[in-house]
Amino acid sequence: MIETDARILIGVPAFAGAAHIGETLRSIAAQTCRDFRVLISVDGGDRDTAAACAPFLDEPRVVRVMQEERLGWDGNINWLMAQARGAFFCYWQQDDVVTPDYLAALLAAADANPAAVCLYSDLQWTEGETALAVCPSVTGFARDRALAVLESMNGVPFRGLIRTAAIARTGPIRRTPFESAHEEFVWLAKLAREGDLLRVPGPLYYKRKHAGSVSTRWHRREPAWKRAVWIEYGLGMLETLWPLVAEAEREVALGVVLDRLCRPREGRFLFYDPAAEPVAFAAAVVAQACTRFALPAVAAAIASGDTAPRFAGGCGGDLLDRAVQRLAASAAVRRMLEDTGTVELGFAAGAAAGRALLEHGWAAPDAAGAPMQGRSAALTLPLPETGSWRVVFAGLPSGARRRGTVSIAIDAGAPAALEWDIAGRVESRVEAVVDGRGDAAVRFTVPETVAAWPLGLRREPAAGITLDRITISRA
Predict the structure, then answer these.
(1) What distance in Å separates the CA atoms of residue 453 and residue 463, rounded to the nearest whole number?
(2) Cα distance between residue 368 and residue 380, in whole Å
(3) What value does the mean pLDDT take over residues 116-139?
(4) Is the pLDDT of residue 455 over 60?
(5) Model confidence at 76, in pLDDT bands (50, 70, 90)?
(6) Could you give the angle at the alpha carbon of 353 between the alpha carbons of 348 and 359, nearest 5°?
(7) Which SUPFAM superfamilies match (predicted)?
(8) Which of 51, 257, 290, 328 stands 20 to 30 A from 233 (CA)?
(9) CA distances (Å), origin 466, targets 332, 422, 439
């Protein structure tokens, strides 16, 4: 495809880049280091971008290839990496520029640090963004390096100088059904298993901020899509860690993944925040993990229905316990519904199956049930995949006023909404008929009222509910 006598292959994936790719190629041509070749892969038969590259093709070290079929950002980079025959590969975005000594500085650092698999500079944002992006060197044990990348989700090294031999051991970027969103971080973490990632100080790389960039579009997508991406990122984390942990520590690795996905911390980025449904989200991750990885202790706990904590104590172990309890309870409920057509879930203290289905917004259950805590609460109903089901909610009013209305939204096959009128200390019920489509998210909301206080006004929940039980039966 391209001459192989150069130490560096610069791979430029191009698509809809006619406006800026000329400036990028001029920046490459201005490099003081001349030990490179350039391979431009124009995706999807983009004739305008191809034409913008034409003035640079008289230079023998520059080759342009047309990809008539759309490869996507991930497929195009994978194709380019597979063409590398020299010692190094450098991914270069179609609209970014660098200082003339960029390659020389990175190559000198690579020669001085033969154990490093990736050398990279600082990154200066331009055009609407002025921040300096810095990624500290990633060193230490292989597992620590991989975890550091997955924790930080810092993509600066992705644009560095990478040893071709390490790329061969790492393999291609994973392709997912979700535009491979954030898979560059999973790939970088796998690269970090192979050796150190070393920072070369100084803002040598300049990156444009685009309102229409692929990653910007990802952030504007609907919550359900972002949730699916975040689950897949967690599975990519586990895939990365899998070869680095002993068999006895694989449940520990799963707990670490759940902690990273679910818990905000300073410096952490959550592409999807599962704060409103931590247990349901963790259970979704665990369920998919069990289909892809050998997790016998987790699978046994789910199958047994034993709700005793097994994994608490380690990082994310409490989340793993709650996810396992949720999956075990859900499986038991579905079996009962399929066998008998009806089930009653209790939420009072001691009713483990019902409590395992609770999400946010509930106080500790007492003898009367699980009281709402605040204006909203949620739980998950494990409905079968087919059929129509009558769901009856029963409980007592709670809160200072003990009178009002609780709104209930059920996100099932056909979403349902109902109002639960409550008053006094009398148990009340409300019911809905919903289609079975698997897990259904149920949200309880109470309105606010204004209460007078000596120093002014404050808002408080008008009334809440202490949920005693839910009965599900065939409609």
Answers:
(1) 18
(2) 20
(3) 95
(4) no
(5) very high
(6) 80
(7) Nucleotide-diphospho-sugar transferases
(8) 328
(9) 24, 11, 22
Contacting residues for 294 by C-beta, under 8 A, at least 6 apart: 250
| Encoded tokens for 35 | 């030990």
- Summarize pLDDT for 168-202 with one digit per residue, the tens: 999 999 999 999 999 999 999 999 999 999 999 99
Task: State how beta strands 370-371 and 464-474 pair.
Answer: antiparallel
Rg (CA), the chain: 27
Which region among 12-26, 97-111, 250-264, 375-389 has the lowest average model confidence (pLDDT)?
375-389
pLDDT at position 382 is 94
With beta carbons less than 8 A apart as the criterion, state whether 90 and 39 touch. Answer: no
Determine the residue type at 320.
L
Q: What is the pLDDT of residues 193-239, one digit of tens each?
A: 999 999 999 989 999 887 778 888 999 999 999 999 999 999 999 99
**Interacting residues of 35 by C-beta distance below 8 A, sequence separation 6+:** 6, 7, 8, 103, 107
Which residue ranges form the domains of the chain, and what is each CATH number?
Answer: 8-218 (3.90.550.10), 234-340 (no CATH), 343-474 (2.60.120)
Cα separation, 46 vs 349, in Å, equals 64
Supply 373's token pair: 């805590």
- Tell me the longest C-alpha to C-alpha distance in the chain: 86
Question: Which pLDDT value is given to residue 312?
Answer: 86
315 contacts 249 by C-beta, under 8 angstroms: no
CA distances from 135 to 89, 119, 210, 268 (A): 19, 11, 21, 14
**Sign (positive or negative) of CA dihedral 354, 356, 357, 361:** positive
Q: How far apart are CA 94 and CA 56, in angstroms?
A: 14
Per-residue pLDDT tens over the stretch 278-313: 999 999 999 999 999 999 999 999 998 877 888 988
- Report the distance separating Cα 68 and Cα 401, nearest Å: 67
CA-based nearest residue to 405, from 416, 397, 414, 395: 397
The span from the CA of 91 to the CA of 158, in Å, is 7
- Packed helices 317-340 and 250-262: angle between N→C axes, nearest 10 degrees: 90
Chain-centroid distance, C-alpha 54: 39
The DSSP symbol for 138 reads B
The chain-wide mean pLDDT, for the chain, equals: 92
C-beta separation of 401 from 449 below 8 A: yes
Type of residue at 280: A
Cβ–Cβ < 8 Å for 222, 278:
no
Percent of the chain with pLDDT over 70: 94
Residue 382: count other Cβ atoms within 10 Å of its Cβ.
Answer: 24
CB 158 within 8 A of CB 184: yes
* DSSP three-state, residue 420: strand
Two structure tokens written together for 22: 């000329």
**Integer Cα distance of 121 and 133 in angstroms:** 9
The neighbour count for residue 4, using CB atoms within 10 Å, is 12
